[in-house]
Amino acid sequence: MADNSTYAIEMLNITKRFPGIIANDNVTIQLKKGEIHALLGENGAGKSTLMSVLFGLYQAEEGVIKKDGREVKINNPNDANDLGIGMVHQHFKLVQCFTVLDNIILGVETTKYGLLQKEEARKKVLELSDKYGLKVDPDAKIEDITVGMQQRTEILKMLYRDNEILIFDEPTAVLTPSEIDELMDIMRNLAKEGKSILFISHKLAEIMAVADRCSVLRRGKYIGTVNIADTNQDELSRMMVGRDVQLVATKEDKVPGDVILHVENMTVPSKLHHNNAVKNVSFDVRSGEIVCIAGIDGNGQTELVYGLSGLENCTTGKITLSGKDITHASIRERSTSGMSHIPEDRHKHGLVMDYSLAYNLVLQRYFEPEFSNKAGFLKKSEINKYADKLIKQYDIRSGQGAPTIARSMSGGNQQKAIIAREIDKNPDLLIAVQPTRGLDVGAIEYIHKQLIAQRDAGHAVLLVSLELEEVMSISDRILVMYEGELVGEFDPKKTTPEELGLYMAGAKRKEIGA
Amino acid sequence: MTGQEKNKKSGGLLSNPAVQSILAALLCIVIGLLVGYIALLIINPGGATNAIITILKNYFTYPSKQAAMKYLGNTLVKAAPLLMCALSIQFCYQAGLFNIGAAGQYVAGAGAALFCALQLKLAWPVCLLAALIAGGVFGIIVGILKSYLNVNEVISGIMLNWIGLYTVNMLLSGVKETASPYTVQIASVNKSALLPSLGMEKLFTNNKYVTIAIPLAVIIAIVLKIVLSMTVFGYEIKATGIAKDAAKYSGMKEKKNIILTLFIGGALAGLGAAFLFLTGYEQWSVTQSSVPGMGFNGIAATFLGGLDPIGTIFASYFIQHITSGGSYLDKNIYPSQISDFISAIIIYLCGFVLFFKLYLNSYLSRRQERDKNKTVASTNKEEGGNK
């Protein structure tokens, strides 16, 4: 009787409130059996909250959840598990020093006289792994395997528990392009075998590639559900953001001016490994151009920027900024000499998370006479006035404006705050490291526009990015980095992502004249 | 309780973090006293009620107002160094450092002050300065180890506590009384080293131990509050404490800041010791084999004071109040450590302050939400029906 329903899971009119905000406002999602259903929304749209309600981590104030047409109560993750609901979290929940097999059976171990019976479990895991094409080594330890394999372990964990409804929370954020393709295949396989999949994402291309239907949330509200076959990326992004979004940045041609940043034979040691992360690198960035360092993560881009910004000392080489030798200058001197730096890790470096937004906005300037007097006192009213100006000018949204604690702001607005702070310094050189990572299309569009505006104003921009699409669309010149060396220089108009890919993977290289 | 009635009326006042801190501290105190009372009941049910009242009454035990004032003076004399130690720990805590070495910096300050007063026969301003520097140097050692060699400040602090204790014992052996292990009385060898009273002793029934140390400690607390909340230095210190990497990214000299913070912390604790020993209220025992508890009690006062210099003034007084009160207990029935026990419970409960605040905040916003919903419910109904 119950199985007659076409829906595996229905969440009807769910409302979930948190102090001060309504995270889900009358949201309805219906997941058909055997479909891949995407859940799309910007950061903070309420996707994760909705899934947490389904998974029993939160209780909704209003609304009902139905499984196979029958109303159910989910009070905790164990209830969810009993109903066959499994979830792959964005940050994996794996025991690092356990093997893949141990992690999979953790919590549902078969025992005999109190002793573990792993053989049976191993057989089942290998069967599942064969059936769905999930390649794992059951005896490898989690800490030794790739992120992709860790994710497959998480998927196997759900399958081992015979879960029918699988939730993937932003599963592609941590994967390389080839791993993403593999994951897409796995998801299609799972759906074919009758599993129902909820796929949370804000990446339109992936949703178009793999999903059957897509439900969109915006600021906690349910916007609608569409068939992927009848829609396109533009419509989805309009539903998600609430207005038309330019997916590809446009910019006019511009002839670069003087050399702003000149790097000669720079070598930077690596903290993690006892070798040089950046080897003998030379390049220039001119005013009025965006130079992009492309490459696969971990090829020395981070250390290159550390060397430029002074977070790490270079062992050899020479750095010149607007004609001034800054090789041995302190971080503060570089900053006051006209270098701005949008850091890769905005939580670790970019913001003092427990400071107010106003305090964070003057993090690079609080010592200037504008914001502090000679006796060493902060001019609080000036700081607040300046903060209000930036908040307005750069449209930084937060709960209470200038006094809002940075930690409580959404990722996109935290990034906006950093960008406002760094750009408003009016720098000769702006270094931006993965400035759009983890952000939604609306915020990405905004950040790209800001970078291009800097270039058009005659400043030099050095962009480090892992996203080829971004590299191709906004840079004037592309430098490819591979294993700590620059292996090629390209004009984005005369190259293709495929060609760049070959250089990024180390298959090809050519000499570049600095 | 009138306080509770007020709370019900004004959610605005309740959501003020300062008010919350005070409420939480009071809650800790009440629960701490209750648990202390239960302990007293277990030891001897008969006198428990009287005992807890005695602890709370402290100097009010004396029927005459004059005597009470005099002994209030004594409590204040000991509260001043406690406040200084608490400020030392608190200042470092703002920079993300747990200065458990305050106990040793206090010892160093005591040693330097007494050595200058008794051996070198110097005047009190020099003795104060010596204590400040000695405590500061002890802090700097911890700071250098921390910032250049990444040695945990708790470990190096604790080890320095012992180094300090025995060094000071040796240093002061030359100025001890012949018949006892105590250092000679300052009043008998070098009156110029005694802190001036500026007439305050009159207020406290000629309690000669009441000196400028007490107002100085309060002034220093207020200065620290201003430094932390209003200056560039405070901005940097707190940024370094909360987010070391972000501080470095913005070009702050985080190593220098750590060392400077620990110097100031050490100087505060060292001064605190001078504030006690230069009154002549206590003499140093050169045979003592445990680090004086003042530095550790400072931890309690800091947390009870809600990590705020002004709150710490009151917390230091309160802790000293019940500690002094404990000494009036009938020693045949109860150990005088019962008041240490109560303050220990209170410190333990300070951890719960955070839970209390969290609970209070979520309760307040839930109530706010409910009120808001009630008012807009009628208008929303129609819209909801259309959907």
Q: How would you portray this structure in words?
A:
The complex is a heterodimer of chains A (514) and B (387). By secondary structure, chain A is α/β, with parallel strands linked by helices. Chain A has 17 helices and 22 strands. Chain A has helices at residues 47-54, 77-82, 100-105, 118-132, 147-160, 177-192, 204-210, 233-241, 301-309, 331-336, 346-350, 357-361, 380-393, 411-424, 441-456, 468-474, 497-504, and strands at residues 7-18, 21-32, 36-40, 62-67, 70-72, 85-88, 111-112, 115-116, 165-169, 196-201, 213-218, 221-227, 259-269, 276-286, 290-294, 316-321, 324-325, 339-342, 429-433, 460-465, 477-482, 485-490. In chain A, the strands form 5 sheets. A 6-stranded mixed sheet of chain A has the order 6-9-10-3-11-12, sandwiched between helices. In chain A, strands 18-19-20-15-21-22 form a 6-stranded mixed sheet, sandwiched between helices. In chain A, strand 21 (477-482) and strand 22 form a beta hairpin. Chain A is globular and about 70 Å long. By secondary structure, chain B is mainly α. Chain B has a domain at 75-316. In chain B, 74% of the residues lie in helices and 0% in strands. Chain B contains 17 helices and no strands. At the A-B interface, helix 10 and helix 11 of A face helix 12, helix 13 and helix 17 of B.
User: Uncertain regions of chain A: pLDDT < 50 for 5+ in a row?
Assistant: none
Total beta strands of chain B: 0
State the low-pLDDT regions of chain B, or none.
1-10, 380-387
Structural class based on helices, strands and sheet pairing of chain A: alpha/beta
User: Count of DSSP E strands of chain A?
Assistant: 22
Helical residues, percent of chain B? over 70%
pLDDT averaged over residues of chain B: 86
Cα end-to-end separation of chain B: 49 Å
Task: Give the overall pLDDT of chain A as a whole number.
Answer: 87
Largest interface: A-B, 33 and 25 residues
The number of helical elements of chain A comes to: 17
* Major beta-sheet overview of chain A: 6 strands, mixed
Radius of gyration of chain B: 24 Å
Q: What is the end-to-end distance of chain A?
A: 73 Å
Please, what is the oligomeric state?
heterodimer
**Morphology of chain A:** globular
- H-E order of chain B: HHHHHHHHHHHHHHHHH
Main beta sheet of chain B: strand number and arrangement? none
